[in-house]
Amino acid sequence: MTPRAGQRTDLRADAARNRARVLQVARDQLAAGDHSLQLNTIARIAGVGVGTVYRHFPNRHALVEALSAERFQELVGEAQGAACAEDPLAGLRHLLHFTLDLALEDPDFAAVLESASAEETQTSQMKDELDQAVAVLLDRARRAGAIRSDVEADDVRRLLCGVEHAVRSGGSDRRELYLGILLEGLRPPH
Fold it and tell me: Are 37 and 63 in contact (CB under 8 A)?
């Protein structure tokens, strides 16, 4: 279990097995197309008590965060790579495409990405790492004169979530157009 404020970081072996089993059942449900992730149902299928599930994941969002950890870490790695790209605007373009692809592929991950707060300490840490990498990328792009001076990492995440919503709500054939408009909007005013 990812520790929250004041929690121990180590789990007893049986608690770690139970947590892993709950996560596996949830992954299996998602793979089968069931995105409801009802904690009571997961407990029954995993063969653990409902209280056990709620101790590890107090709500559905906490479970989704835990399930999204690998994708989030992948995104952080891409952002760190983009921050080091020779051309910061090309790095930003790549990162926006990569992030949009992840969000469109996994609506639960998109919900974690756009959420203002995090249930899991690990998610908070990864959001901080993501924002730091994007801030470095944006600073480099600003110094190169490629983006506006008033855009922050949080703004980029929110704007991209808007593009993701627009594409998901029926504009899949407009994906590149929407990303192009976002990138053009990030450019400095003439």
Answer: yes
Q: What is the predicted pLDDT for the residue at 117?
A: 83
* Region for 92 from its dihedrals, namely left if φ exceeds 0, alpha if ψ lies in -120 to 50, beta otherwise: alpha
Calculate the alpha carbon distances from 184 to 71, 93, 109, 141 in Å.
Answer: 27, 11, 26, 13
Q: What does pTM read for this prediction?
A: 0.83
CA distance 175 to 51: 43
Query: pLDDT digits over 32-90, tens only?
Result: 999 899 999 999 999 999 999 999 999 999 999 999 999 999 999 999 999 999 999 99
Sign (positive or negative) of CA dihedral 29, 79, 132, 107: negative
C-alpha distances (whole Å) from 178 to each of 1, 89, 102, 167 are 38, 17, 16, 8
